[in-house]
Amino acid sequence: MATAAAQRTAGSEADGAPDPVDTTAYQHAFDAAVAADERIEPRDWMPDAYRATLVRQIAQHAHSEIIGMQPEANWITRAPSLRRKAILMAKVQDEAGHGLYLYSAAETLGTGRDELLDKLHSGRQKYSSIFNYPTLTWADVGAIGWLVDGAAITNQVPLCRCSYGPYARAMVRICKEESFHQRQGYELLLALSKGTPEQHAMAQDAVNRWWWPSLMMFGPPDDESQHSAQSMTWKIKRHSNDELRQRFVDICVPQAESLGLTLPDPELRWNEERGHHDFGPIDWTEFWEVLKGNGPCNEQRINQRRRAHDEGAWVREAAAAYAAKHTGSAGGTGHETGATRA
Ligand code: 3HC
């Protein structure tokens, strides 16, 4: 941000110092930086509402990554081959890594991971609606890769150009990994689709169940999206929910044809005039019910997350104890120095 250095010198919200001067000049500098497509960095002045919006979105995104590990981890022990098991384990581990990058990005805004996890566990922050659906068969692993990760990429590639630097940079790596996830799902579904009639039917059933929830991942329709307009003005979001949803439908239609699978929407057809596919109405009642906690797996997912957190307490304590010991070693008496001497 062009005037960031001057702002830092004058004091900023980020370092907690009381602002001695009128913030109007800062606001103008912030607006100019956003208009010029410059990145806002952690120590730059930013409006409180911009910071709060980023924390809300990044936290929800981070929570989605770690809750999203559950439906697929459900199939690790039942993967049909060593190759499939290795791929699935790598993918689930990637999701944990994505959570890590995103919680770290939120930390740069002054919000610690403990606080965010506490909000997730107590239901004060959301995670993506999609992870409240069950993975009933092995084909669901393919459908999640193709559709859920495909939707995530469509939504997240524009976030690589988000105005907030740490979030944008985290998204670059996440998108590369999501791209691999999407391809493995497609390849898995293709193998099933071209397999026995039973395997083909299993793939079709999975696509039937995951298609509509995947379209809901993009959020409510634009006229009901509470945050879109402001987030787009701030260039946190670059496209509206409906624009990205339409882009995703247009991408999926030819891919479904190549897979030999049918998308479960009788109203899906190419509209020459619009240059896009028309599609049938989304059941928004279902979406809002899932957000309220009434989806098929909401309770299971959050209970499992709380259990994993509690059972992992000893790891956090051990890591904190090690870090404290390590910090104490800075003077030359600690473990690493000793190891070097040995
Ligand atoms: N699931 C749960 N909540 C949703 C939602 C969804 N699919 N879509 C919207 N919402 C919530 C919003 O969070 C908001 O509630 P809040 O005020 O309590 O936060 C409310 O519904 C209204 O929606 P808006 O359109 O106004 O909200 P946004 O402007 O934040 O847009 C979004 C929603 C498009 C999801 C946006 O937040 C976004 O792009 N987030 C980053 C991407 C992300 O979170 N992806 C998660 C997908 S899963 C994933 O990435 C894991 C991968 O491994 C597949």
Automatic annotation (TrEMBL):
According to the record, the residues making up region (Disordered) are 1-22
Q: Name one GO biological process term.
A: phenylacetate catabolic process
Q: Which domain of life is it from?
A: Bacteria
Q: Which InterPro entries match?
A: Aromatic_CoA_ox/epox, Ferritin-like, Ferritin-like_SF, PaaA, PaaA_PaaC
List the GO molecular function terms.
phenylacetyl-CoA 1,2-epoxidase activity
One Gene Ontology CC term in the entry: cytosol
The identity of this protein, by name, is Phenylacetate-CoA oxygenase subunit PaaA
Species in which this protein is naturally found? Streptomyces lucensis JCM 4490
Q: Which gene encodes it?
A: paaA
